[in-house]
Amino acid sequence: MTSEQTHKTKTYVLLFLLVVLGSVGNTLLSKGMKDAGDLDISHFSSLAAGAARVLTSGTIWAGIALMLGFMVCHMLVLSWADYSFVMPFSAIAYALVPLLAYLFLHEQVSTARWIGIVLIVLGVVLINRTPHRTTPQETVPGMTT
Amino acid sequence: MRTASILFFVVATGTGGEICLTHAMKLLGEVHDFRPRSILSFVLRALRVSWLWLAVVLMALSFFSFLAMLSWFPVSFVVPATSLAYVAGAFGAKLFLGEQLNGTRWAGILLICLGVGMAWADDLPASLHYPSAITVFRWAILALALGPLFYYLVGIYSAWRFFRVAHRGAVQTPLATNEARPISILKPVRGLDPGAYENFASFCRQRYPEFEILFAVNDPEDPVVPIVQQLIADFPERSIRLIVVAERLGPNTKVSNLCRLVREARHDLLVITDSDVRVEPEYLRSVAAMFRDPGFGGVTALYRGQDNLQFVAAMDCVGSSAAFCGAALVARELEGLKFMMGSTMATTKERLAEIGGFEALVDLHSDDYELGSRIAARGYRIELLPEPVWMVFPSQTLGAYLRHELRWAIGIRNIRPGGHFGMLFTHGLPWAIAAACVAPSAAVGAAYLAAYFALRFAMAWTVGVWGLRDPVLRRRLWLLPVRDLLSFFVWLASFAMNRIEWRGSSFTLEKGRMIPVAPRAGRG
What we know:
Chain A is mainly α. Chain A contains 6 helices and no strands. Chain B starts with a helix and ends in a 7-residue tail after the last strand. Classes of the chains: A mainly alpha, B alpha/beta. The interface between A and B is large, with 57 and 66 residues.
């Protein structure tokens, strides 16, 4: 019983990390790219300067590191949970981005968007009521590669 | 129409990629140990699963087409439209992964789809700037052109891993006398190769207690017959037999002759080599040493060329040792060997019987590949000999060389269509040229070309000069870009053709099976 509970806890921890690392990583990457300015690719010197700005940006490296962490969490959680269970959780990011914009950037959020956010949360709650794994646990014989 | 097709492409590649990823992870089994060390070993194990690489390619394609879509349409359309991926993912999980979706899960997925649509259907306040389609295309080419460069790095790593052990391996494990199982060497031969006598004699000069050599020919008048008779006279202490095989069991006459040779062989351990192969005196000891491990199903060998070759032969040799042996080493490192090469096919009668004997292969074109893949499919290991064998490359015309390469490429496309298409990312020169064409400036283009030359030569040097100690490659390394370009065109042509010329007859290939074509009346 306890092992099943720790198992569940692990799933939620990873899903939480998945959403946070994914959305923060994405935001850092796009912020870093924006800070680096438009890439002017008409001359090598301006391209090199742009590339240098990108490569020396701490924001971008932090973004890359978070995305790598995201990928590892994704792989780990998929090693036991259903894809159709994990996939919908990533939609939380779509609800989170406007929500964070509302909370911290004080951007306007339209009624339609509020409804959307509520629907996403409801959907995730429903998914959460289904079993985490519905496929047999044995690996297919002969597929050891 | 364009909208629908790009949307389909984004969703299909993205969902396909994630499904492949899930499948790869499920193959590896559940991981519950989150210590950094075990996570690292999990990720390293994952990198050896082909499904993961397929997933990465599909997800990259999806990402680039998503960017392209954003450059054409507003984000308020793109995000809700691509939320179809949730539905596609649910269907995919049910169909391909066998997951059971109950009503609650379906309802949740539909709600999320709707929700993403509602939340993002407005124009977003952020002033997002997205690149134009041309820019996305240009960056996609520049990014994909890194693929072959990465392949060369993997090639260098794989060669280093193999030869680091192989260069000291042969000395490490001497074979005890009682472990030297008697061996039957089987040689189906036809026509006269350059240096045929010396090639054959190198097998007679083996320092090995007990072995026999069996030659098979179809035609008693074959010019190779006097050579074999000479050999029998010159090595009276060896058991050498020449068998004239009258029966023909299938279009692959080499395999057909092998069926007979296996029946004639007195010993259990079989070593089969092409007639253009020459070996060192310790060759059989080295093969027998590998078979001490009962997990081994087959042993094959890399090869290198003898020096002083004519131009086209040298190109053939450079391609074989730098490109083909390199690819074999990468395959070995990533997923383990699942094929054998004609340079050496060593197995036992028992393993051969398990796959139905050579009789099961008489219709097939790439018999060496198939033999290895069938033995590997039964769970046995295939491994490379630490020492490469010598291959005597014949002088030939450029046309003959290209036809031979094309025949080989068509054979591979037939048995491994996916893998053959994936070879796209091993062709560095055309990618470097494409990158140079779309590069924003001459310097970027030059950087791609320079990177190709540097890494290509580094891989060829590691595999051929350092690893295989190939004397031809050492002197004619500069032939490599010429060979690379020719081999790219051969690769392209292999998609357009399905007809091969082999030993004077025409065949078409269907899933690797040779189907004879009558000279005039179409299919015979």
